[in-house]
Structure formats: structure tokens, C-alpha cells
């Protein structure tokens, strides 16, 4: 709150005070009051106005300056009413009470939408579990009649199953802490489970998988990690180079304070301009438009799960040569205490 702004806002008061000062002067002159007494009364009136304005300005300046300073320093600005003291002047009290009422209304509104979002997420999870039953039945029937339906029909059913899994993991990714169990997980077993789940897709694509250094355990949730590796595998099989046998290499290296899990393929690679955005929500990039239809959700969910689990993920790529994802598992007592 600046002095100039305050004076401009109070201009009407100063004009009124000047008018009253003139009326007092005329009144005293009409009654032939001595000049010295008149000057004293006028000076006393002026001193009163100036003193009252200084006190009023200081009180308001202190409150509004504190309000603006703390508001600028807050990430969650709706909590401002909790960061300031209730002022001792009427306008400030009204402002403070308005902030409290607005925050209360906002909290009630947010709670309402949170409940609505939670109900919708629970419905989606329930729906996915329900649709998994007929889908599994269809896959079994298709497998038993493979000669009649062909591999393409089985592959389409597997893709539907993968997409329903993606919906489920996305719905849970916002509250993954309610669903994950942190414990020691064998990378070798997790990679083997992922390969087993995707074996038919890998065989159809004619891809090979090479592993190295996976006799390491990490603190994570095995189910979530299998989903992440499954997303990497699906992308590797989707973005292959024509006339080049798809190859996937999964390796791990252990350091004193961390374990690095590398997932590398020899596919089309990611354009350099797209690399910073591959984990953004719904980002499909050039490959998503050129080679295959993509929702842009798989890697976004992977990044969200890594953040929730306390892991970090990075990607390096060379166009037309390779793409490599690296998940970093930290070694500390944090997970041991949680598990």
C-alpha cells in the first residue's frame, strides 16, 4: 500500500475537510474572534486531520503490506487467511472475514468435487475388474480356436486387455500409495514375469530379449514395476524399424546409493524435439502420428507411478537407432521403514 495511492483514495475526505475548515474560518470571522485564536483553532483542526490520517494510514499500510507480501510468498494462495492476523480496523476486519468465508466455501466446493472424483474413480476400477472377466473368457476361447480366428484376433484382444490395464493403473496412479506395497523385489523375476505376459506379442513381432546383471533386488512394488516394463515393451514392439529384427536389452547396474535399470530397444527412436515431453500427459509426438496410433498416456502413467514410488526415470534416444529408458531406485532406509 503506497502513500500516493492512499492520498488519492482519500481525496474526497481532504476536500470535505477543507470545506469545513473554510466554514469554521467564516464562522469565527463573523463573530469577530481574534486572529490569533482563529489561527490556533485552524491549526488545531489541521493537526487533528493530519494526525488521524497518519495513524489510519499506518494501520492500513501494515496490514495490506503484510497481506501482499505473504500472498506473493504462498504457493497455495487460498491459505492466506491463516497466515495473517486479524486487523484492528473495520475495513481490514471485513476483508479478513471475507477471506475466511471465501476459503470455507472453496474448501466445501473442493471436498464436493473430490468426493465426485473419488466416486468416479472407484466406478472405473470396478468397471475394469468387471470387464476383465468376459475379456479373459474371450481370450481363452480365441486361444482354443486359434486356427479359426488367427493370431490377429488374439493380438487385438491382448491390446484391449492392455488398454483396460492402462485405464486401471491411471485411475489408481493419483492414489497409488493406497495400493502399492514396498518390499524387496528381484529384477530378474520381474523382467521374466513381464516377458511371460507379453510373450505372444514378442513372438508375433519376432523380437529378441537380452538381459544382463539382473541378479539384483530393489525396494519397489513388483506389480507397478511389471506394468512399467510392460509399457516399455509395448512401445518397443510398436515403433520398430522395417527390415530390422526388433531387439530389446534389459540390464541393471548397482551403485553404492542406487540401482539403475536400463530398458533399451533398437526401434525408430524418439525425435530430439519430442524427448523433453515424452512423459507429458496425452503427448503423442511425431512417432505417435507417423507409425502408430497412440494415446500418449502410457509413459505419463509410468512417470506418475515412479514419482509416487520415489523412483526417477529418464530417457535417451537417437533417431533411427535406439531408445533407452532408465529407472533409478534409491538405496536408503526410507522404504525399509515404510515396508
How is this structure best described in words?
Helix 4 (90-144) runs antiparallel to helix 5. The chain has three domains: 3-85, no CATH class; 118-173; 179-338, Heat Shock Protein 90. 61% of the residues lie in helices and 13% in strands. It is elongated. The strands form two sheets. A five-stranded mixed β-sheet has the order 2-4-5-7-6, covered by helices on one side. A two-stranded antiparallel ribbon has the order 1-3. The chain has 339 residues and is of the alpha+beta class.
Quick structural overview:
The protein is of the alpha+beta class. It has helices at residues 3-9, 11-30, 35-73, 90-144, 146-173, 187-197, 199-205, 222-238, 285-290, 298-309, 333-338, and strands at 183-186, 208-212, 217-220, 247-254, 258-265, 312-318, 322-330. The strands form 2 sheets. Strands 2-4-5-7-6 form a 5-stranded mixed sheet, covered by helices on one side. The protein has a two-stranded antiparallel sheet with strand order 1-3.
CATH topology of the largest domain: Heat Shock Protein 90
Principal-axis shape equals elongated
Largest sheet: 5 strands, mixed
Number of domains: 3
CATH class of the largest domain: Alpha Beta
Q: What's the mean pLDDT score?
A: 84
H/E element sequence = HHHHHEHHEEHEEHHEEH
Strand order of the largest sheet: 2-4-5-7-6
The fraction of residues in strands falls at 5-15%
Number of strands: 7
